[in-house]
Amino acid sequence: MSKLMWYQNLSFKLIFWVGVITITVIGVFAYINMNTQKRHLLNEAILGAKQLSDTMRRSLWYDMLHNYRDALYNEIEVIGRQEGIEKVRIFNKEGVIMFSSDKEEMGQMVDKKAEACYVCHAVDKPLERLDIPQRSRIFRADGHRVLGMISPIYNEPACYSANCHVHPRGKKVLGVLDISLSLATTDKGIKEIRDKTILFAAITILAVSVIIGLFIQRAVYRPVKELAQGTTRVAAGDFNHTIPLHSRDELGQLAESFNKMTQRLKEVQYQLLQSEKLASIGKLAATIAHEINNPLNGILTYTKLIERKLSEGTFKEDEIPKFRSYLAIMERETERCSSIVRNLLDFARQREPSLKPDVDINSVVEESLSLLTNQIALQEIKLEKRYGQLPTIMADPMQLRQAFLNIILNSCEAMQDEGKLTITTTFLQKDQVVKVEIVDNGVGIAEEDLPKIFDPFFTSKEKGTGLGLSVVYGIINSHQGDIEVKSKVGEGTTFIIKLPTQTRVTNTN
User: Pick from 470, 467, 477: which is nearest to 395 by CA?
Assistant: First the structure.
């Protein structure tokens, strides 16, 4: 399995999209909340300005009615000095400023094109539309925002019937009371609300992302990663690997099903292993018979010779060293037979994989060759062994013996006249692996068959079972090793096996 880039990980994708959704939702909520608060504060300011304007208009009504200009000047000036009030003005219908807290502009014409007048004036037209409900406007002055509130001064009956300054009954509006209030405090409050809202949204997004990230890491990413690792190890032949169950949800059920599947695959592999062992034993039967028959014939010959000497009574003192050498040969040949039978029984014994420390690969290869010595001799195969200095490894020697024996047996069957078998072992210190190369000059394997030679039941032989190399592949992978095959038709085949010095194979015994 190729290593995924960080942006391809499931956890990154989940956290990314959850983060995007969280930021979007909380961002929209924060935006709406800020605008709502902003409108609320502005509405409060406008309402306060309206109440202040209406109150002032009623308070100044008596002085305006009786044309008490000094009192009006004084009241407007006092009000204009209050905190938060930028300016207080009264101008007539034609736009002439009659009274103002800024005395310098008294008597001047209001700029009807200015922002402060857009509510009540159409461009280049007399004052009109003073009865509209929207009497507020917001504009900038001296670097901050200002709220302007106008209150029309209507021509009431008391005005057009007074003796002091009678206005025609047809006049509807006499002038305008204009109050300008600073929005600096309101804007400061809006900024504080905005800053707090953004900070709260950022903290909320971070907290939600962390919580969801931890949940995804624990409930999704870790189980999925364990499943992926388990799949990789099972694909490598480690059927003893199980996935821990962390929950009873769908992922937990998937892990449980995976463990059941692995157990069934382990049983199938074990059956295949034993089937191939039996098939290999059948192939070895004739070779072993010849292998044992030779030492037995030697033992029988020396036994009859000694028996005849003893029965004839011709036994001489100087013949004792000779008889002792006969007995030594008989002992050695007996031990040889015993070793062959013992190795054969170990090979055929049905048992679970058993890891052992300090396994010498050179010895395992040599033991595999000892079972095929007679066949190699009968086929007159030239055997060349190039054993290097190897560190010992943790492995199952019986299984590795079977793997090497299957490969060597295939090589022998692939060679005919003038066959040559070369076995080389080396230690690759950089990779910390032991490499075993088994090279023959046999018929070779067709290029189209190379990808399939490790498939169960695939064989190019008429009487082959198709399990030999499949079992080899399973054994090598269960030891966390690699196996590679190079072959050309008519030139021969090379099997390259690499076994790590440290393996994670589980010892089930």
Answer: 477
